[in-house]
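Q: Convert this sequence to structure tokens.
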Amino acid sequence: MIEMIQMWAALESMAARGSRRCNATDAEIARLRHLFDEFQNSPPSEHLTSIPDANIAFHTAVIALGGSQTIVDATRNLLIHVRAIRRATIVQSDRAARSIVDHLKIIEALEQRDTELAERLTRQHTLDLAAHVDRNCDFLD
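A:
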């Protein structure tokens, strides 16, 4: 599972970096921000059933901004497996609130067309999940 998350981190960060090359539009980037509108006026703990779906939609959209159908196809299967991990871990260690903050930072980097920062933030966000899973989840038992 950790290796799948690490592979996803590598591919998604490449896509985030490629968003500039593919001329992601302001409207496409703005759609990322709207994925989290419903969570802005109440604590994430009230949305634990819908945050994982918004999370996957966010990551899928970031990957699509990169303009590489190969990366989109490669990550589609990974995200199917990761969805279950997200649902299990979103309730742990205030991950829901931290995830939303991370996503908003990624969106800000994309809005500023700072694709190097977006790449770094995207990779770190996903690797943080891998580290959390490694420390706190035992899927073999």
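The chain has six helices and no strands.
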